[in-house]
Design a protein that fits this description.
The longest helix is centred in the C-terminal third of the chain and has 16 residues, at 213-228. The strands form two sheets. The protein has an eight-stranded mixed β-sheet with strand order 4-1-5-10-6-9-7-8, sandwiched between helices. The protein has 251 residues and is α/β, with parallel strands linked by helices. The radius of gyration is 20 Å and the shape is elongated. Strand 7 (130-133), helix 5 (137-144) and strand 8 (150-153) form a beta-alpha-beta unit. The protein starts with a helix and ends in a 12-residue tail after the last helix. The protein is built from nine helices and ten strands.
């Protein structure tokens, strides 16, 4: 098995050198998946991308920019890799997706000592206030589900702070980022619990339309190798402790 992995790695490196430098790699500031701290790129997805690049012998620099700018380039230019992004019907014609990188859950969080037993959407609609980040996927989901008790604020941290201060009864946020928000606010993670999952979606690497299929195949196979040798699981558990990583890659 080890000899097979070594041989496959050598073949991937040799073939990928033909395509190295052709790919533009873009991401945004979104901890803990991808972010810059003191000029250094960090995060779960960043480490996965860098591990894939190492297997491919690719030293292309990852560029950090706003989501709007990155998405515009990825939807108008070939040979662009954008991460981390969710898959949707609208995006299927625009990208080839490789992953998943992570399982994203949209949860309703409460303080551990909260008296509310929220185990259904109906019960969640009966609490007084739910805090959520303005114009986020969480806010949109709450609107789509018919919630009226929404308090929208203009930063992720402020939404979390509303829960901590008792100004809302529930906080709508993803499992991906809630730990980092609480840490930034200096509040113990174990004092906040998930009461209800509203939605679930996976996050992916997205290759723009027109990207060479051989390049995508090399990235997919290298990602598969990270699963086989345990690298992906190690990275995942370091950034999202207690969360189960995706078990299978898309075909």
């Amino acid at each position: 098995m080890l000899h097979r992995l070594i041989l496959l790695t050598l073949l991937l490196v040799k073939s990928s050198l033909l395509f190295a430098g052709n790919l533009t790699i873009l991401t945004e500031q979104w901890p803990p998946m991808n972010f810059s701290e003191k000029g250094k790129l960090k995060g779960l997805a960043v480490e996965v991308v860098q591990a894939i690049q190492k297997k491919l012998g690719d030293d292309t620099q990852i560029q950090m920019m706003t989501w709007r700018s990155a998405y515009e380039r990825a939807t108008t230019q070939p040979n662009v890799l954008l991460f981390s992004t969710s898959k949707s019907e609208k995006r299927l014609p625009l990208f080839t997706f490789v992953g998943p990188l992570a399982i994203g859950k949209l949860n309703l969080y409460a303080l551990k000592n909260s008296p509310y037993e929220v185990d259904s959407i109906k019960k969640a609609k009966n609490v007084k206030r739910i805090g959520v980040y303005y114009s986020s996927v969480g806010e949109q989901k709450l609107f789509d589900l018919g919630f009226k008790n929404i308090v929208s604020v203009r930063s992720l941290e402020k939404a979390g702070r509303l829960l901590i201060k008792g100004r809302v009864d529930l906080w709508c946020n993803t499992n991906i980022s809630y730990r980092q928000i609480l840490d930034k606010l200096g509040f113990p993670e174990d004092e906040v619990v998930s009461r209800l999952t509203l939605d679930q979606s996976n996050l992916y690497l997205a290759f723009s339309k027109g990207t060479d299929p051989k390049t995508i195949a090399h990235w997919r196979e290298a990602f598969r190798m990270l699963h086989r040798d345990g690298t992906f699981k190690t990275i995942y558990q370091r950034w999202l402790p207690g969360e189960q990583p995706p078990k299978r890659l898309n075909r």
